[in-house]
Amino acid sequence: MERKHELLPYWISDSKERLDRDKIAELLGTAYWSSKRSRATIEAGIDASLCFGIYDENGQQAGFSRVITDGATFSYICDVIIDPGHRGKGLGKWLVRTMLAHPDVQPTNKMLATRDAHGLYEQFGFQRAEALRLERAATP
Q1: C-beta separation of 71 from 14 below 8 A
Q2: Domains of the chain: which residue ranges?
Q3: Mean pLDDT score across all residues of the chain
Q4: Using an 8 Å Cβ cutoff, are 56 and 8 in contact?
Q5: Hey, what CATH topology would domain 2-122 get?
Q6: Pairing of the two strands 74-82 and 61-69
Q7: Share of the chain above pLDDT 90, in %
Q8: Long-range contacts of 8-12 (CB under 8 A, 24+ apart)
Q9: pLDDT tens per residue, range 44-58
Q10: What local confidence, expressed as pLDDT, does residue 138 receive?
Q11: CA-CA distance, 54 to 101, in Å (whole number)?
């Protein structure tokens, strides 16, 4: 799947071959939710997920997200991040809208966790709800 932005010189692809894994690791290294992940963990997450990359007119990675899904009943949206140099253009909204419309995500119940982007996701119908969590111990 590839989708060009209707007004801006950006496009989204779900092709893992296009992903700039170095850039993704760099971006995730700056986020509160992923800064302690090892490169191996980032790579494993990419390999096991449905991934979306946003690219600028030069083909450079400008954003990333991934969805863990069974394609039938459940999807967990995670690692939604836009490069700081490309923020403020609505790319995050476009990325979320594109993920939610993907045929492997659209028919499922969707979940995500955020500490600071509630307003973004509530625009798409997400509602705050109590959840339980079991977190594994950190590994070197």
Answers
A1: no
A2: 2-122
A3: 93
A4: no
A5: Aminopeptidase (3.40.630)
A6: antiparallel
A7: 79
A8: 8/89, 8/90, 8/91, 9/56, 9/57, 10/54, 10/55, 10/56, 10/57, 10/62, 10/86, 10/89, 10/91, 10/94, 11/54, 11/55, 12/52, 12/53, 12/54, 12/55, 12/94, 12/95, 12/98
A9: 999 999 999 999 999
A10: 65
A11: 15
